[in-house]
Every structure is written in structure tokens, then in C-alpha cells.
Specification:
CATH superfamily: HIT-like
Number of strands: 5
Largest sheet: 5 strands, antiparallel
Order of helices and strands: HEEEHHEE
Bound molecules: guanosine-5'-monophosphate
Strand order of the largest sheet: 1-2-3-5-4
Structural class: alpha+beta
Number of domains: 1
């Protein structure tokens, strides 16, 4: 995947405080906030503060501290949100992956039965 980062993307603007967000949790390396168009009763987006485009970009190039902070934050969010009897984590990457915002993010979804992984 290409990793050219667009600093004008919406999540970069949220990180700079140019666009408001409903923050769930913030740490030195990570921000988690509610999705503006939730697809489930719980729909939280978790983003690193660093300029990473996709999952593979973050996984390959982020520092150990960023990687640990991001995933520990995800774990804390799954513990604190009312996810019901399970949840789903999604990361879309690139055009075929359906990625709309080119700043790496995980969707944490739950609070209802989520159905099949993909709609054919
Ligand atoms: P993607 O399709 O890139 O995986 O997901 C992008 C997500 O960002 C979508 O679920 C969309 O609803 C959400 N989103 C887009 N713009 C904003 C925004 O300005 N604020 C918040 N909180 N979420 C946004």
C-alpha cells in the first residue's frame, strides 16, 4: 500500500483541534472518539496521533511505544464500553478496502449482534 500521508485529512484536523470530536480516551500516542455516523450502539474510532495511513503502515513503522499505547488503549476501551456479548474490530485500508479517511484507524463496534463479517 502507498503511505503518502495527507495532513489535511479529517482525522489529522481532529488531532489538531480544528474539528471537534466526542473523545472516549486520550493518551500520549492515541485518541479514541465516537464515530460521527455510528453503525452500531457502540462505534468508537481509535487512531494513533502519528501520521500513519493504514494498518500495515502503522504496524511496519510505528515505534514500540506507539504500538503498545495504541493496543492497550483499545483494550481499555473494550473493557469500558457496553459491548454486550461480543464486538468487532475493523480496519479498512485503501480503495478496495473501503477506506474513506486516509489516517489509520480501528473501528470498535458492538452493542448488538453484528451479523456476518462481509455482505456479499
Ligand atoms: P473508513 O471508511 O475510513 O474506515 O471510516 C471512516 C469513518 O470516519 C466513518 O465511519 C465515518 O463515519 C467517520 N467519520 C468521518 N468524518 C468524521 C468526523 O468528522 N468525525 C467523526 N467522529 N467521525 C468521522
Amino acid at each position: 500500500m502507498p503511505h503518502a500521508y495527507d495532513p489535511q485529512n479529517i482525522f489529522a484536523r481532529i488531532l489538531r483541534g480544528e474539528i471537534p470530536n466526542k473523545t472516549v480516551m486520550e493518551t500520549p500516542h492515541t485518541l479514541a472518539f465516537h464515530d460521527i455516523a455510528p453503525q452500531a450502539p457502540v462505534h468508537v474510532l481509535v487512531i494513533p496521533k502519528g501520521a500513519y495511513v493504514t494498518f500495515d503502515h502503522f504496524a511496519a513503522e510505528a515505534g514500540e511505544d506507539e504500538l503498545a499505547d495504541f493496543h492497550r488503549t483499545c483494550a481499555k476501551i473494550t473493557a469500558m464500553m457496553d459491548l454486550g456479548a461480543g464486538y468487532r474490530v475493523i480496519s479498512n485500508a485503501g480503495d478496495d478496502g473501503g477506506q474513506e479517511v486516509p489516517h489509520y484507524h480501528l473501528h470498535i463496534l458492538g452493542g448488538r449482534p453484528l451479523g456476518p463479517m462481509l455482505v456479499r
